[in-house]
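DATA SHEET
Item: assembly model
Revision: 1
Owner: S.N.
Input lines:
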Amino acid sequence: MNKKEIKLKIYGMSCDDCALTIERNLLTQNGVIDAKVSYREKEGIAIIDADSIKPEDILGNSIFSINSKYKAIIKKE
Amino acid sequence: MQYDLIIVGWGAAGFSAAIRASEITGEEMKIALIGKGNIGGTCVNVGCIPSKFLIEKSLRINDILYNSNGVSKAELFSEVMKELKNTVYKSRVGKYEDVIKNYKNVDLYYGEASFLDNRNIQVKNANNTHILRGSYIIISTGSSPTIPPFANLNDIKTSDNFWDIEVLPEKLAIIGGGPIGLEIGQAMRRFGTEVSIFEIANEILPGYSEEIQSAARNIMQYDGIQIHTDTKIDNITSEKSKCIFYGNNKECFDEILIATGRYPNTATLNLQAAGVQTDSKGFIITDRKMKTSSEGIFAAGDCVSGKLKLETLSAREGVIAVENIFGYGKEIDLNATPWAIFTTPNIAGVGISEHDAIQKGLLFDKRVIDASSAIRNSISGNKYGFAKILIERTNRKILGIEVISPEAADFIVEGVYALRFGLTVDDIIDSTHIFPSHSEIIKMAAQSFKRDINKMSCCME
């Protein structure tokens, strides 16, 4: 397994429940090992198996789809 | 200062990118919009808006003169140019300056931008220097008119400053027989100016189809415009009047407009520091998702390599760049992007040209019908024009459409839908058009694939 940490900037959250909802959705995605989302920071971290998914595949999660209220970008350092 | 998105260039592409990113994030995305010169870029300040204003006024010149008590064309022209500046100002304020004020998440920076590396940009103006850091960057710095090395800026006009003319020139030379030259030339001719167009290629509108080139020449000459093709200008001098030299000839004019092409506004960006690759002319190379060679950096608009310079295309590219930052996987569809030249009649097209279809080895069929086939043309007195349709031989899908007709810029969108949604020539035939309309010429060109339209009555479905 090739673990990789992806930092996300997340838009559209209005409460801690939003952060939990996003976290749960990320955790159901194939290749996502762990996920933490902070409403306060408007950010999230996803640990992925880089052998099975690419970082940008995170943005394809239905929680960030065009019709969802939540949007994300991968933060570039 | 840290931003989620930095947009370099505040023209059509930059604005549409800023607005789309704001929309997607409910105005949560922190955006820096950097620019120099008038906000709004080429289109509103020195491109589409002033040129179409001048064209529209020139088309109504006889009505305006009829209703004006003894006003001369020269007096009217000066008045029109004042109005033009006012229209540009109002459009800039109404459509750009006031619009961007609605987006509190967008910070404006006036100044010269240059990359320090692939995330950091320096913005410098007379008073300040800012260092901005962005997770993502979109370059949308546009393009500027090329000026031949022998031309002194004081002797010539370009499409950037032609709008400053206040006195109607008796004689106008236009160097470059492309869309800008033809549009401005025809408008100025209507005001009574003697117009001469000089084109280095063997036909005006180089790169366009032979049918368009031939019809455009006829249209210009019918309007009394002198066309000089295969003509290389060797020098321009300014004494009492402005003179151009070509071959053994010298000819003098009141104004000289250079309209020979455009170069990208990328030279001062220090793109090398960001790892952004350009073509040999400095245009930025992108893929169809508008991604450059440097991760996280996108480009949109006139500064992008290998495409038409269109305001609408720039805006679309700005939107696509932003949507791909959010992982939407959008691609620009250049094939379904329409273009138009606002001559009278309009020249417009969409899709692949016959030349490109041959180059690609496509199996295709084509039909070309004269504008006189559509009865509305004879009613409106239009003498020149045609419609040309290319279809794939195997499945009859539309490959490309070219039209010269009044209102063609408005109805070419029919071809956009045909290409975007893979429609066949039979889909166009099966769609009822308005009779008598100019758009009917597209339907008639489609019908010519299955019958002799000379044996057709009006409204034949």
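QC remark: DSSP finds one helix and four strands in chain A.
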